[in-house]
Design a protein that fits this description.
Keywords: Signal. By secondary structure, this protein is mostly helical. It is built from 9 helices and no strands. It folds into 2 domains: 56 residues; 177 residues, no CATH class. The N and C termini lie far apart (96 Å).
Length: 237
């Protein structure tokens, strides 16, 4: 009986080991497939985003398309938006008087340096400066004319806004509001293009931070003006 029990115990142990091995192999395969699918989805998402933006650009201008689809351009735009968002996040906490004072001192380098420290913008400013240099050094950006640069930034801003904002539906009473929204989006697009273009015109060096803050400040103010005009437009409908 003792030998039989040992034999049965050995049989059950082998069966259990085989079952665990099968479960592990199945889980491992499904996990690998899951992560492969996730990675592929992420890569496809990036490809679709770039493909969409590239199609929004002028397909007849190969140079503009090549820049728009480059890693350097996307890093530039990401850094541009991060700086603008961080700037707005801080200025939204200021009183109207403090905000006006900031706008009055945009050309004061010492004031801008102090502002960057208070707003904790150092990391975003450094990232923006590096991204701008990469765009200039590693793409054909400098070969674009001034008009082509504006075209590049406007077309990017247009495609970017289309993915974020849907036009308001026309009101059943009191007139439509879609025209107000279109005017605001046009102002946003122009402001973003002017901001990006101003950033690329900032000179490298110790004074570049002040120039970048000026660009972000003018962009923020332009959007604020567009928002006020939009509210006035809606009120008059």
């Amino acid at each position: 009986m003792s030998a039989r029990r040992k034999k049965n115990a050995l049989f059950y142990a082998i069966a259990l080991a085989c079952s665990l091995t099968a479960i592990f192999i199945t889980y491992s395969c499904s996990t690998d497939e899951y992560y492969t699918d996730e990675t592929q989805m992420a890569e496809n998402g990036i490809a679709k985003t770039r493909g969409f933006s590239s199609r929004m650009l002028n397909n007849e201008n190969t140079l503009i398309d090549s820049i728009a689809s480059s890693d350097e351009f996307w890093e530039f735009e990401m850094s541009s938006e991060l700086l603008a968002d961080k700037f707005h996040e801080y200025t939204s906490t200021l009183s109207e008087e403090e905000y006006d004072k900031l706008m009055e001192n945009l050309n004061d380098d010492d004031y801008m340096e102090d502002f960057a420290r208070k707003a904790n913008l150092q990391d975003e400013l450094q990232q923006m400066a590096k991204a701008k240099e990469k765009l200039i050094q590693h793409t054909g950006f400098l070969r674009l004319s001034e008009d082509e640069r504006i075209q590049l930034f406007i077309l990017y801003a247009e495609s970017n806004e289309l993915t974020k904002v849907k036009l308001l539906k026309t009101r059943e009473e009191g007139g439509g509001t879609s025209n107000c929204e279109e005017q605001k989006q046009a102002a946003y697009t122009q402001a973003k293009a002017d901001y990006d273009n101003a950033v690329t015109n900032c000179q490298s060096g110790s004074m570049s931070s002040g120039c970048l803050i000026q660009a972000a400040a003018k962009y923020d103010r332009a959007k604020d003006i567009a928002n006020k005009k939009y509210k006035e437009c809606i009120a008059n409908k």
